[in-house]
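subagent[fold] <- orchestrator: predict structure for attached chain, return tokens only, no commentary.
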Amino acid sequence: MRHVVARLTGLRSLGERYTPTYWLAALGNGGTAVTFFIWLNFLVPHPNTPIVTFDSIAALWAKTDVTGQMLLLIALAGVAIFAIRHLQSLIWNLSEFSRFRRSSAYLQLRETNGAVMLMALPLTLAMTINVAFVSGAVFVPGLWNVVEYLFPFAMTAFLLVGVLALRTFADIFGRALANGHFDCTRNNNLTQLLAAFAFAMVGVGMAAPAAMSTVKLTIGLSMLGTIFFITAAVVIALILLVLGARAMLTNGLAVEAGPSLWMPIPLLTLIGIAMLRISHGLHSGFELHIEAPHRLLITAVFFSLQLLAGLLGLSVLRRVGYFRTYLNGPARSPGAYGLICPAVGLFVFGMFFLHVGLVQNGLIEKFSPVYFVALAALAVVQVLGIITMFRLDRRLLAQPARSPAEAERVA
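subagent[fold] -> orchestrator:
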């Protein structure tokens, strides 16, 4: 079976060197597929549907010039390539993780702070549903004609993943609260925010029907599910952020877990998008009208917090030499895949801030020189994330990796 998976995915088995941190590789590929969808969603006109679809892309293709068609092909290829890479990495991780769960390393992991990495499984599964949804939207003709029938299935899928996340969270932190084995002195990073990240990913997925459905019951159920999981994410994030910051101020950053400093960026992206989707659901389903200036306020606040987290994290990571050691140097750590999601998150919410916040409020004119400068800056963030992911694939999946004990030492 191991050889079949290796042939199917192109990724070699790590055996005892596997750690659940590798779920972040699948997560990063899925997020990158979504970034290419975001390009299409904001630049392809779709007046009859809330998101871009195959039909709106086909309509633009028929009337645009060769340059426009090439740009459409690049975006569509990006969605397809990284969706396939996500599925390959997902299958590989499922195979590796199934063996890992039968090992003594798994039992040891559950008794350490690193047990939070088990939350990466529901986090990645929620991303898989999102990738499937955006891929279907842009590649399946006429899918939007039956989308109201698909929403209940999508919400059920997210709910099942949410139940898995709740069970995993209760097992990890319930045991820690009951036995008191959580080591606060070794919590000098923000890796524990992965738990909040998982709940936020489920929450933003649950919110999609609220922003897209025309059925009041579907909108209402979508909003209720979103409120539960996003509230859980916010409460958990605030508690764990304080604990992690206190430990770092006391003991300094655990350098190998440095990318966790940027975890608030994708977390804020998911919470911010969920709020925008809820506001749309209130507008379309319950006649509580949210005006454009309110959306400017929401996007500006969240994007400002992302920039603050990004700048502070960059300063610290440079000071401790993280990039020099783990990205360009001799050290190898699967935790470096944690660099991908912040790039994805900053790009995605930057596009929301630009279009929903600035363009819709008349602060920037679409297709003006300033607009293209902003797009170029966001494109740089996206490209840096892609380059980093390919580099990590070569370093971590094509060469010997750390043992689980070494990988979890800083968690």
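orchestrator: received. Logging for downstream: The chain has one domain: 2-407. Confidence is low (pLDDT under 50) at residues 399-411.
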